[in-house]
Amino acid sequence: MNKVVQMLLVLTSIGIISGGLLAVVSGWADPLIAANQKAATEAAIFRVKPEGKKYEQIKNAGFELYKVMNENDQNSGYALVYQGNGFSGKIRLIAGLSEDLNNISAIEVLDQVETPGLGTKIVEEPFTSQFLKLETSPKIDWVKGEKPDKPNEIQTITGATISSKAVVAILNDGISRLKKLRESGGLK
Amino acid sequence: METLAQTETKQKVYFDLTTSPHLHSGWSTSKVMWFVNLALAPSIAAALVFFGLYQILIILTAVIFAVGTEALIQFIRKKEITWFDGSAALTGLLLALTLPPNFSLSATAIGSIVAIGLGKQIFGGIGYNIFNPALVGRAFLQAAFPVQITTWTKPNFAVDSVSSATPLAAFKFDKFITDTSSLALGNVGGSLGETSALAVLIGGIFLIVVGIVNWRIPVSMIIGMFFFSGIFWLINPQQYPSPVFQIFAGSFLFGAMFMATDWVTSPITNKGMWIFGLGISLVLVVIRIFGGLPEGVMYSILIMNAFVPMINRFTRPRTFGALKEEKK
Amino acid sequence: MKKQVTLSKEFLKGVWDNNPVLKQLLGLCPTLAVTVSAINGLAMGLAATFVLVMASLLISTIRKIIPPQVRIASFIVIIATFVTIVDLVMKAKFPDLSKALGPFIPLIVVNCVILGRQEAFASKNNPGRAFLDAIGMGAGFTIALLVLGGIREIIGSRTFFGLQIMPDQFEPWLIMILPAGAFLTLGLLLGAVNVYADRKKRLEHESLVAHYKRVGREELIEELEVK
After folding, report:
1. Does the beta carbon of C168 lie under 8 angstroms from any beta carbon of chain B?
2. Measured between alpha carbons, how far apart are the two ends of chain B, in Å?
3. Is the pLDDT of residue C207 over 60?
4. CB-nearest partner of B145 from C174, C178, C184
5. Is the ipTM of this complex over 0.85?
């Protein structure tokens, strides 16, 4: 009987002490983690919309969407965070769009688990710079192994066609949802 | 192998104690290896004709580094150095023939070193390796340099309709079917040795006739390919290519004749060979039709290599005179 | 009475003789998964070392209170507490590194090096020795991961700690930063370690035989052979 009591006592106290300790640490860390995430999002928004000075989230869009304002407090476009399937997992990216949604200002890949050295090139230049000033209508298209000659085309990465196409598909998906949202007046 | 005379010259006289088989077919390892090398001559010739003389450098690099690696490792491990038994040369040659034309020579050398070092010698040398060494080298190169190894060049006599993409890639991504006569002759994009089905068949049939290659493995692979890819073709001829195309395109025939039939890494029983061949074609059809890659001969042979010990175990013939085991 | 080893040996055994990765083959999951670069290997090693040291100190301090029936449960709760602390601190202070190591920081909980040392050492020795043992094992783990990560980074992406050290002409071997490269590198590394250890043992044996011959104690040589 004595042994059982001791077992219960020791395990319980270890649990209580651990729990207390973790509560203290997470009380200190949680605001920092939240601040990190907010700072990361903010930095990404201003990287894809360089002329932006302020932003606010559009809450009822159904996906992550930010309205970006320039220095005169006028609407200068949108920053869209969207995700979809890549070659070996989810790709999450942010895209800056002009106010009429017809041009991309820049994109940045936020999270990806593509093949190192191949699919991971979607994060880097020169792939990402192809999206500067890219036209989004009727939709973004891709060409393989040759220089793109239309204003709405990009070239896929050699050896990482699937990842490149995934980025295009995710952008097309997100932008078409955004356009639908505009038609239904959700952007007002 | 030591001869008795060599054994006796040593201080301690002992008998060579080995397990069966004790019968010798009269074919020494080196004779077999040089015959297989000879059988690859038509494929080498086809590669030179269609892709240019530079390819001879790839072949030479692969062979020299394969033989050199073998000798170096045997020297370090203080084993008898078997330069000239032709097995390392054959591994190098087979590896070279699976590479794309104009492949970089330094990467070819790396492939040869890996093929012999990690594919063969690390298991203890000839006869002990589980996986086909040339394919181990090829798989390593595929993972290490995925872009270069899928960069194809147009063959010399390309007509306009022939692109630099391999016929399988052309079908997978653009639904373009290369005509069978181009495939048979070899006037298409692809690895050095695989493009000319005719050259491969000449070499393969020569090996079957002289009795080095057991016909069961290539035949079962072809039957299996015909059957499994035929099912898909009958379901939807637009979506899936015909069995004839599947057999002639890519490295299927080359794999069936030269890679899957490697003595060390294929089953020893007749029944086992059938299982092995059918297994390869089943895995291959799955890779080609459902996988992200257009080609999969290499992986399907390597995968079935891993099953060979198990196949041998379960197809072991009954000992002569033994009774059938009663079911419990 | 147990044979007492010197304190420095208590520390050094983890670094080489009983290196958790190279000799005991423990904790291979993080070893193989995170070592795509030297910095990842180092960070993983340091995080695991921190958890190992803290858990060993605490467990060896309270080892007499913990009833043997619930010792594994207690160890795991204590380890998990420290792991969660490390995870939270890294997320708060080093978000980039935390992102790179992904789910492998929380998985330190089930790293068998840590639980293994608690069961095999910390729960049977005083805190001083437990501390030295933990530091040694942690150092051995960190060194092994750093070497693996370094080799894979140099060959797989031409860099070391992010600095390019291989020339541009060198085409990186992508396989080295893929999972297959982890298995190949670890296998070759283990082979090299074994070759070295075998040779050292043989040389020691030979010098001992020579010594016995010199002093004329041939009967001891036979004793060695039996061993």
Report:
1. no
2. 44
3. yes
4. C174
5. no
